[in-house]
Every structure is written in C-alpha cells, then in structure tokens.
Write a sequence for this structure.
C-alpha cells in the first residue's frame, strides 16, 4: 500500500515525506515499542500514539519506512528532525489507533498475522 492510499483511507496528513517511494506490505499498531521489535516484518507500517523520538528509533531498527501517529497527536520537533535524518515518512491520523488500523485493514493493508500464545511467567 502506498502512502497516498494510507492518507486517503485514514484522512491522514503527510508531515514528512520519505526520500524514496514506499510500498508497505503490512502494519503493526502498538504503543509498546518492545512488542513492535518482537514482531517486525520488512516494509511494515508502524501505527502508534507514541510521538517521542523512540518511535522513530524503533522504526529504524525494525526497518519500517513509515509511521502513522494517531489521535491527532502532533509529534515534537525533535521527533520530526530524527525522522527526517533517518528517512522515515511521518503521517498524522485524526482517528484512534483502533480506528486507524481498522480503516487500513479495510483498505487492504494486512497485519503481521497470527502469533503464538505466550504464557507469562509468574
């Protein structure tokens, strides 16, 4: 899915364009960056409400070329500067994380798939 298709499906604004064309194959929605790193896939879109630079660092480590910040939360200047430096596209959706993910799924962007159930140690 292209960034234009993502913007159309979620009524998102492009805050920072990527330096190259992007075709996203899947998406991950989370505010817990450690979960994002556990379940990363190539050309994945990150959907998050976490607008600090850590979200951009996570995109870089996960090789996710784009992030959509949800709930209309505008990222701080240092986040946008880091994204620009790393070549990561930044979009802003006015919808909640649940609704943004649902709109993208409805438009054809898939998730990362079924995951194993993990029992927590007590």
């Amino acid at each position: 899915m292209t960034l234009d298709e993502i913007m159309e499906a979620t009524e998102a604004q492009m805050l920072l364009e990527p330096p190259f064309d992007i075709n996203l194959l899947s998406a991950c929605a989370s505010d817990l960056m450690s979960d994002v790193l556990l379940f990363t896939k190539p050309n994945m879109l990150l959907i998050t409400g976490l607008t600090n630079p850590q979200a951009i660092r996570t995109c870089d480590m996960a090789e996710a070329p784009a992030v959509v910040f949800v709930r209309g939360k505008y990222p701080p200047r240092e986040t946008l500067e880091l994204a620009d430096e790393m070549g990561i596209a930044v979009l802003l959706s006015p919808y909640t994380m649940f609704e943004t993910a649902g709109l993208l799924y409805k438009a054809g962007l898939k998730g990362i798939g079924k995951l194993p159930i993990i029992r927590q140690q007590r």
User: Anything to note?
Assistant: The chain is about 35% helix and 15% strand. The chain has a mean pLDDT of 92. The domain at 3-106 is CATH 3.40.1390.20 (Udp-n-acetylmuramoylalanyl-d-glutamate--2,6- Diaminopimelate Ligase; Chain: A, domain 1). The chain has one domain: 3-106.
